[in-house]
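Usage example:
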Amino acid sequence: MLKRAYEHKKSRAEYHFRSIGLILFFALLFGGMILGFIIPLRPTVSDQEKRELTKLPGWEAASFVNGEFFKQLDTWYADTYPFRDQLLAGNQALKSLYGIQTEQIHGSVTGGDEIPDIMDGLETAGDSGQPDGSGSDHGNLPGASESSADSQRQETEEAANDETQVAETLGEDDIPDAGGVVADELQPQVQGGVYQDGAKAYGLYYFNRSAADIYIRAVAEMAVNLEGTAQVYDMLVPDSSSIQLSEEKIQELAISDAQKATNYYYKSLETLAGDQVRTIPIYDTLLAHKDEYIYFNTDHHWTALGSYYAYTDWAAVKGVTPHSLDQFEKKEFPGFLGSYYSTLQSEELRSHPDTVEAYVPMGVNTMQFTQTDGQTLNWNIINDVSNYQAGVKYSCFVAGDNPYSIIENPAITDGSSCVVVKESFANAFIPFLVDHYETIHIIDYRYYQGSVTDFVRENQVQDVFFLNSLDAIGDVDMMNRMASILPEGE
Amino acid sequence: MVFSSLLFVFAFLALNLLAYFFAGTIKRRNVVLLLFSLIFYSWGGPKYLILLLGMTGISWFCARKISGRDDKKGKKRWLAVECVLMLGLLGFFKYTGFFLENIQLLTGFPKVIPEIVLPIGISFYTFQLLSYVVDVYRGEVEAQPKYWKLLLYSSLFHQCIAGPIVRYQTVEHEIEERKITYRDISDGVRRFSIGLAKKAILANSCASVADTLLPAGLEGLQAASTAGLWLGMIFYMFQIYLDFSAYSDMAIGMGRMVGFHYLENFDYPYMAKSIQDFWRRWHISLSTFFRDYVYIPLGGSRAGNLLTVRNMFCVWFLTGLWHGASWNYVFWGLYMFLFLMGERFIYGKALKKVPVVGHIYAVIAVLFGWVLFKFENLQQLGTVLAGMFGNGHVWMNTETSILFKNNIFLLLFCIIAVTSLGKTFRSWWYRRADNVRKVPYGMLFLDMVTPVILLLLSVMALVGNSYNPFLYFQF
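Running the assembly step on the lines above writes:
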């Protein structure tokens, strides 16, 4: 080609290509601008991340002057941008190209506190080999407990208020196709780090001694207080990491020994409250079934199957005969992507979703729950969540997490009743309890307002059942909140 | 506001460009730019706008006075007024706390150190205004008669907050008159989208790895593995360059879109073959500022070795201090000074003979420089430096090896991104096309789709990343 002809052809081609490039770029830029101005398109909740998105800030002169208003506006604009979840998924796909991501860690490997055999100041009682001490032993709660619990109570009051507000803002209207139950499930529930190996993730359990001691004191104190009124049971559930990871990995990730931690709780409780607290050891049972589907892969909870094994242990301690699994009607809800998925947003997890299996109680499948806003709703104990979003399917059990719920079983008329003091781990377990009590009260200590001791007395409840995950009760703020609602009200 | 936010890209910039192109005349366009710049600056809290307006006012006035005087003495007097006021204000807002802390450490007084918030961008626009007035004094530029036009120069949102430090002479004529060709817009768009992606995707991702490996607080650093500290510092090294140069890319790109031609601020600094070479390639607008307004006025290198050393010491002490009011920045500046001394007087010539060694030497020296730069807390600094050489830290742990595997392609990509490989490839392709006289459709197509793809990827990253630190804001 002649040089002139070539130059001409090239500059024409360049002009066309550049012009089209500019049109494409500005189409996206101005398209994005228009989209950003269409407020109704903006989401308020993210299913991918299971959280409520930022709200448009209120106009205040002070926040305007110091720049706070604009900062919040910035966050709001990006956080609630239309098609957020789709854009997020795109970004996740891009990030999966960063490296070999079959194994992942989210958060830091910090290691837990050292786990002693028993709480400080209780050695003598423990060594003397009299865990079921006489009545006078009960009064020997460590002196610090009263005053410190009081001061902690005030601190937690504020924290608890904040929490309620968060829960309140998540009204049922926010999630049109999921109902009010889901709201509480939207709060991030993974506390520490998360470790992912292939298509399964594990929470990193780190023992926290201060939190443990608050829990032990509060539960023991309440048990002693209720002597002659009600019997207290305590079941602590380990994370999947403790049961299903290899010894080697547990060491590498500096995960605390969950069995040792459970012993610390149980031994201290028994020493402080004697017979008033009956502890339910489930660690070895779960370990014996470690290769079964007893924990979810994409979520931090155990499955109904895992909780069923623990239920047989409960029955042994309680002295009743457990029902066998095949007596129940089984339901399956596939396509569950739980909290670990929200945290890691990993492609590997996304392509291997969990199936939530649920067993419908024999006597009754209806219940009633009270939301944080005081509204009471009727619901199913095992609710059909087939059409719910992928992230919230664990809420098929007992309507998810609510301050207070009640289940009345017409098939039983012996007047038996219990209160379950719990966080979300108990949800998969409670359906198995239904066929053993006439009335089951469920109190979620994170949202309940009022005194649990008063509640037990007023309703003449016979059994108080603490069913908690070791991980959840390792949080000092949560435990202060719990310690504040257990004792008698003023 | 930061460039790498969705609100900036989709609301501020988009509206600004629309208003700009509909404004018509150059005067109206300048007004549009000024108004948008003032809003942009007010975003971090409108009260500091007064400071920007005031400092620009002082500089405008002093420059007018200087150009109005015929006598050298009178000119000098007004230059002194300008310097005292500008440096005084910069010193007050940036260094009062640091200064008093050190006095307190030595004498016990004062008891209470006032908390002074650093106004955004003050380090950058103070230097811009100073350079303007000095240039007027030197007769290199005319004093700007209109205050608002000088304000446009000092507050222009492209560069006001995080550089580059644009000299008034660079834009003197373009403020009055500028032509925009489709080529300019196209180049500007390309440059802007590369900068945005560099920041929103690469720099933020590097930051997140670096922050996991180099956790805040002494305890976390003590527990880190040696390999983790190295890997964390390498990611930090990428982060700081990608972050800062991305800001300059975006500034240059946005300038281009409306007809301003700012000078380059970075030239692949991690490809440097010596520390001297590094400083010719890193934050060029700052090094040339110190060269032209400190080093050369002090006599430069023409007054004998002893004075050269003194002059260089001053420059590097100030360079360090400019980056932050803390000793570690000063150490960082002086650390650079030591290498420059070594290169000038001892091993510089030998280094030139083996460029490979020079390159490895420069990269390692710069990496350790960033350790000094990163940790304001001297105890943490010591822990990391010692930990990088073992000192009781485990060599490797699970966390480090997993993070390394998780980000290995990101790491490789960043290594390529900080070199001129992409640029070389692109120009090679175009040159080859010219040689064989075949229109380079492939490359033209790539150039066509690059900006829109990068913009889309950046938007996805910005929606997902609540994590969006910007390092150079503190300076």
